[in-house]
Amino acid sequence: MSTVADPVAGTGERELMNIRTVCLGVLAATVIGGSALAGILDEPKMMAPFFTDKTMKTMKADADMKKVWAKMSKKHQAAMMKECQDAAMSKPHAEFCAKLNALAGKA
After folding, report:
1. Which of 52, 70, 53, 69 minimizes the C-alpha distance to 61?
2. What is the mean pLDDT of each run of 10 residues along the chain (107 residues)?
3. Contacts of 69 (CB under 8 A, 6+ apart)
4. How far apart are alpha carbons 38 and 93 in whole angstroms?
């Protein structure tokens, strides 16, 4: 008896592996892309010093905010200003960005 390879055998396994590969690729892209969407304005450790409470609902007085801003690195200041200039990124932080722009002389 001769053994002939069945060209259809194993097709289901290959398709399943291809589907798994595609799904993993999409998941990886989502994770990487999702982290790119979250910016410095979404980082509690960067935003907390500007607020009086842990819930970050009440901003500090202008003088205190100015002190926090002055202590912040130029890199972080630039990142915050950039995000405040982006309509989509700044929308959830509109009040904060308005105050920040005023402090930075951009209002």
Report:
1. 52
2. 56 71 57 59 95 94 94 95 93 94 77
3. 77, 100, 103, 104
4. 13
Q: What's the rounded Cα separation, in Å, for the pair 83 and 97?
A: 9
Provide the 10 A C-beta neighbour count for residue 4.
Answer: 6
At residue 6, the pLDDT reads: 54
Helices 74-85 & 94-103, crossing angle to 10 degrees?
A: 130
**Whole-model pTM over 0.90:** no
Contact 59, 99 (CB under 8 A): yes
How far is it, in rounded angstroms, from Cα 42 to Cα 67?
21
Give yes or no for a contact between 97 and 84, defined as CB atoms under 8 angstroms apart: yes
Pairwise CA distance, residues 62 & 32, whole Å:
36
